[in-house]
Design a protein that fits this description.
CATH topology of chain A: TIM Barrel
Order of helices and strands of chain B: EEHHEHEHEHEHHEHEHHEHEHEEHEHHEH
Shape of chain B: globular
Helix content of chain B: 40-55%
Largest sheet of chain B: 6 strands, mixed
CATH superfamily of chain A: Aldolase class I
Shape of chain A: globular
Distance between the termini of chain A: 27 Å
Largest sheet of chain A: 9 strands, parallel
Order of helices and strands of chain A: HEHEHHEHHEHEEHEHEHEHH
Structural class of chain A: alpha/beta
Number of helices of chain A: 12
Oligomer: heterodimer
Strand order of the largest sheet of chain A: 5-4-3-2-1-9-8-7-6
Strand content of chain A: 5-15%
Number of strands of chain A: 9
Radius of gyration of chain A: 17 Å
Strand content of chain B: 15-25%
């Protein structure tokens, strides 16, 4: 099946280019900032946007994303705001596919089918359920398929070959390879195990694979592309970039753009 | 057929992919160990010679007289080594971890009782121990922090989120995600992803097995009711589980109503929670309309948790057990009642069960009996109670 996401990877592959997928924490600094940031990120060449749904108990995330989520929640973010944010971004002309990264509880609470339906109507393209292994995913898979959404699955360094094969077959859009055993966060170096994971997955399947968790600079991106990644996801380093401007939102956007441009360039 | 790790529609393992292989390994190793008589012999030796089991089943005569209903029996987990039932699980999982070749143990703690029990088991077995404890809990349970320190454990103060038990579990899970090849996460209650709720239940079931033998020896029959406090729910499942098939034995769980279930400042997740997924399990959770987990409140740090073990959720929806919410004030009255009538100062957590037991027993005939799990002793809470009541 062809979707907006698979189209992007097909185009990039023919241009021998990797996908740059920045992670944006929805509602950090407010809805307007989120939309402005996503829009600017698309302008500098981001191929997809991963939009994080803030959750009170983000146990797969390190301190940077935890803090971003808490800022968003404490300023009054509600789950429904993510649908409004996507609707508005689409209204202002944003074209890049949007992948919503979410913990499972808000999806269950709102209703799995209801969540997928609202995400789809708002203009979202996929859901990336961070704490939902494939064994527990039947309900979400069905609701996502009914609503034309991809479900992006994660693969970890500890995922064995047989299991990785099943995940690669089940994932739609792309597979998300987790570079480290641990949580999200900016890192100086990516472990060699991340590269061997990429090589292993690449030899197993033609499904697009994006590497995330710890991806923070151009060297990481080049190493990942060399090892067979179809793209990279990067979140904490981008958040740190705009947070270094403090409360100066315009400067924050400028710093984020500059950082994102560097990362995107390394995918070419 | 129910999937493995499920209790009715509750349970399962809702975890990031990085944890899947470790949890599957734990499931396999535990299955091996569960069928290995040598493991249980070794554990039972420790539970006897080291932890002081079996704990007594004590007929609380003066308490019974003061209520004027069914006979109240106290299952004295407060007399187990380290002062609570937590040692049953800590010793069992530490032995399991050792068999799995793990040298480092991590755990979360709320009141500090599980942290102390785990630090104790690690000192006994020569293992490295790190405890995650919320900043708020560290403040209200300083004595237990010092005990963990004395036992050689490192206490990591958790400053994220609400800085209580749920955040300590998040932090321990984050550690485990990065360290599971050499570390065992020794979870302290019947919560978390499969296989934890089953492992912890099995290890705590010693409470109910002993109580069953003891009450039968004493009265010649089974009790009419069981009462225990429920935070995550380990002491209660431990007492309940060996009686689950005895349909005439009623089961009552005492949750923390804090300042009152209507005030929003409570921890009564079975009574007032909604279905969702937290810490790896599908269960009942105190949460907002859109799925953010609520902040909870209880005078008892060990009950201050927004969810409940999935097996309790199942026992509740299947009506096998009933759950009631006991306020801080009611728990404090139970705390005083037991202290003054029996010379036993209960943990504030257990005081919730004492209060509920007096209500349950009062409505029952005198020739019937109720077993209450006195899950822990109250030494850790004495300073807090004195402060609450303006006596410090």
């Amino acid at each position: 099946m062809t979707t907006a996401i698979s189209d992007v990877f097909r185009r990039l592959s023919s241009e021998r280019e990797g996908a740059y997928i920045p992670y944006v924490c929805c509602g950090d600094h407010g809805k307007d900032f989120t939309i402005e940031l996503m829009t600017r990120l698309e302008v500098i060449g981001s191929d997809l946007i991963e939009l994080g749904l803030p959750f009170s108990d983000p146990l797969a995330d390190g301190p940077t994303i935890q803090a971003a989520m808490m800022r968003s929640l404490s300023s009054g973010f509600k789950v429904a705001h993510i649908f409004d944010t996507i609707t508005e971004a689409r209204g202002s002309g944003m074209k890049a596919p949007i992948v919503v990264m979410s913990y499972y509880n808000p999806v269950v609470r709102i209703g799995i089918d209801e969540f997928c339906s609202r995400l789809s109507r708002a203009g979202g393209d996929a859901i990336l359920p961070v704490d939902l292994p494939m064994e527990e995913s039947d309900e979400l898979d069905k609701a996502a398929a009914d609503n034309g959404l991809d479900v992006i699955r994660l693969i970890a360094p500890s995922t064995d070959e047989g299991r990785a094969k099943s995940i690669l077959e089940a994932t739609t859009g792309f597979a998300y390879a987790v570079s480290v055993s641990g949580v999200t966060g900016e890192r100086d170096q990516l472990p060699e195990s991340a590269m061997s994971l990429l090589r292993r997955l690449r030899s197993q399947s033609g499904v697009p694979i994006a590497l995330g968790f710890g991806v923070s600079n151009q060297d990481h991106v080049r190493a990942a592309m060399h090892a067979g990644a179809s793209g990279v996801v990067e979140g904490s380093a981008l958040i740190n970039a705009y947070m270094s401007a403090g409360s100066d939102r315009a400067e924050g956007i400028r710093l984020a753009e500059a950082h994102a441009t560097e990362i995107k360039n390394a995918t070419r | 057929m129910t999937k493995p790790g499920y209790f009715g529609r509750f349970g399962g393992f809702f975890v990031p992919e990085v944890l899947v292989s470790s949890l599957k390994q734990l499931e396999r190793e535990y299955a091996t160990v569960a069928g290995d008589e040598g493991f249980w012999t070794e554990l039972n030796k420790l539970l006897g010679a080291y932890a002081g089991r079996p704990t007594p089943l004590y007929p609380a005569k003066r308490l019974t007289e003061s209520i004027g209903g069914a006979s109240i029996y106290l299952k004295r987990e407060d007399l187990a080594h380290t002062g609570s039932h937590k040692i049953n699980n800590a010793l069992g999982q530490a032995l399991l971890a050792k068999r799995m070749g793990r040298s480092r143990i991590i755990c979360e703690t709320g009141a500090g009782q599980h942290g102390v029990a785990t630090a104790t088991a690690c000192a006994l077995l020569g293992m490295e121990c790190e405890v995650y404890m919320g900043e708020v809990d560290v403040e209200r349970q300083k004595l237990n922090c010092f005990r963990m320190d004395l036992l050689g454990a490192k206490v990591n103060v958790v400053k994220s989120g609400s800085r209580t038990l749920k955040d300590s579990i998040n932090e321990a899970m984050r550690d485990y995600a990065a360290s599971s090849n050499h570390t065992h996460y020794l979870i302290g209650s019947v919560v978390g992803p499969h296989p934890y709720p089953t492992i912890v239940r099995d290890l705590q079931s010693v409470i109910g097995r002993e109580a069953r033998e003891q009450i039968t020896a004493e009265t010649g029959r089974l009790p009419e009711a069981l009462v225990a406090c429920v935070g995550g729910g380990s002491n209660s499942i431990g007492l309940f589980y060996p009686f689950v098939d005895d349909e005439d034995v009623k089961m009552y769980g005492a949750e923390a109503a804090g300042e009152g279930v209507d005030t929003g400042k409570h921890s009564a997740s079975v009574v007032a929670g909604k279905e969702g997924v937290l810490h790896g399990a599908r269960t009942l959770i105190l949460q907002e309309e859109d799925g953010q987990v609520s902040e909870t409140s209880s005078v008892a740090a060990g009950l201050d948790y927004p969810a409940v073990g999935p097996e309790h959720a199942f026992l509740s929806v299947s009506s096998r057990a009933k759950y009631f919410a006991v306020t801080d004030a009611e728990a404090l009255s139970g705390f005083h009642l037991l202290s003054e009538n029996e010379g036993i100062i209960p943990a504030l957590e257990s005081a919730h069960a004492i209060h509920l037991a007096t209500k349950v027993a009062a409505d029952m005939p005198r020739d019937q009996s109720v077993i209450v799990c006195l899950s822990g002793r109250g030494d850790k809470d004495v300073a807090q109670v004195a402060e609450l009541e303006g006596r410090l």
